[in-house]
Amino acid sequence: MLSGTVLAPAGALAVPPLGQQVMPPQDAPSTAPTSSLRSVYIVHCAGCHGRDAAGSTTGRVPDMRRMGRFLQVDGGRAFLVSVPGVLGAGLDDRQIADLTNWLLGSLALGSAPADAPPYTAAEVQVARRNAPVDVAAARRTLVQRALEQGLVIE
Ligand code: HEC
User: CB neighbours (10 Å) of residue 35?
Assistant: First the structure.
C-alpha cells in the first residue's frame, strides 16, 4: 500500500499519514544546544568523548567528567589544553580556553578546585607550543603523579 490510510491494529500506535507533522509532547526532552560552547563541544569533541563526556572504554577515550583533577597535578593544567583532540580541532586559543572553561563548569562540574583560575588564550598559546609528543606517556606520568598525591584519575 503506497498511500491512503494505514491501518494499525487496535491498541498499536497510530501511524500518521505521510506529510502530516507529528507534534512532540510538551515535556519532550530538548536536544537543541543550550549554548554555543555546547555546540562547539558537540561538533568537535562529542564524537569521541560522548555527549556527556563519559568517553569510551573500548575506544580508549578517557572519562572527562573528572578532568578538573588534572588541575591539582603539576603539569596537568597545560596537559588538558594540549592533547591532540583539542589542538587538532581547528579552534583558536581563545575558543579552546572558553571551551575548556565551559567543560569545567558543566560536564566536568565539581572536579576542579574551586579557586582554579579560568584558562586564558595566552595560556593555551604557551601550552600549544609545548604540547607533548608522546601524549600517552605524558598522561601516564600525570596519572602517576596524581596517585602519589592520593588523587585517582581513571
Ligand atoms: C578522535 C577522538 C577525539 C576527539 C575528536 C577529541 N578527543 Fe579528547 N581525547 C581523546 C583521547 C583518545 C584522549 C586521551 C589522550 C590521547 O591519547 O590523546 C583524549 C584526551 C582529552 C583530554 C585530557 C583528559 C584525559 O583524561 O586525558 C581532554 C581535556 C580532551 N581530550 C578534550 C577534548 C576536547 C575539548 C575535544 C574537542 C575540541 C576533544 N578532546 C576531541 C580523543 C578525542
Answer: 10
Q: Are 144 and 74 in contact (CB under 8 A)?
A: no
CB-ligand 1 contact for 71 (6 Å cutoff): no
118 lines ligand 1 (CB under 6 A): no
Q: What are the grid coordinates assigned to 48, written together?
A: 569521541
The per-residue pLDDT for range 33-73, each reduced to its tens digit, is 556 899 999 999 999 999 999 999 999 999 999 999 999 99
Kindly report the number of other CB atoms within 10 A of residue 132's CB atom: 18
Dist CA 132 CA 58 (whole Å): 24
Residue type, 68: G
- Taking the mean position of all CA atoms in its chain, how far away is CA 79? 16
Cell of 153: 584519575
Specify whether the CB–CB gap between 64 and 73 falls below 8 A.
no
